[in-house]
Amino acid sequence: MTDESGTVDSLAAEIRAADTVVAFTGAGVSTASGIPDFRGEGGLWNRYDMEDFHVRRFRADPAGFWTDRLDLAEELYADAGPNAAHDALARLERTGHLDAVVTQNVDGLHRAAGSEEVVELHGNGSRVVCVDCGERSDAEAVRERVRGGERPPTCDCGGLLKPDVVLFGEQLPEAAMLRARSLAREADVFLAVGSSLSVEPAAGLPRTAATRGGTLAIVNLDRTALSERAEYDLRADVTDVLPPVAKRVVG
Ligand SMILES: [Zn+2]
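A: This is the predicted complex of the input protein with zinc ion.
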């Protein structure tokens, strides 16, 4: 216990002293809000067929895609709100101690918690995007139209609406990836939370930060692919670690 609080103190001191601090968040931050994980045992992809959510399927059968998407969305977004880890990151940003959150999560909870500099590597399922004109709008309103029988839902311009997330078979958005890489290169402290850091290309970000001399701090329940390279490797629930860290940074 003494050890652990010493670690939190020392990490907090590094964050306070750093010019650039970047957080990178994965599924562990969402599961703490009760959102089921996609991968692993009991993960959504054990219960849903990945092929149904492939971009090929969206193009070939958008009506069927949206019917299946409704079921998935109901599990993903029902009643989920930000948790103490989202709040702690938002508080660090608000007080000038965190430059950006780079996230693999698509639930939009960082923004809901008040984080403003959020780089969404896999998009955001609380929005939809028109595949023709690119206009983005609120997903829940569109899901309501789908429930009412509009399948597939379309934009005012006539284009198909697609969840604003990276589907299987799609590339990560280039602008977001470039911004994330640039943040990783600048980071004095790179805080990787709730991710096993095993899925590329995102896993390259903490490696980049460490290679460029940034302090790598990892908070995850299990050992990660980069645990050996980390100055801080905290095997714990993100909601147990981030609030005390933020508290010590902000004072
Ligand atoms: Zn449109």
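The mean pLDDT is 93. Residues 2-17 form the longest helix (16 residues).
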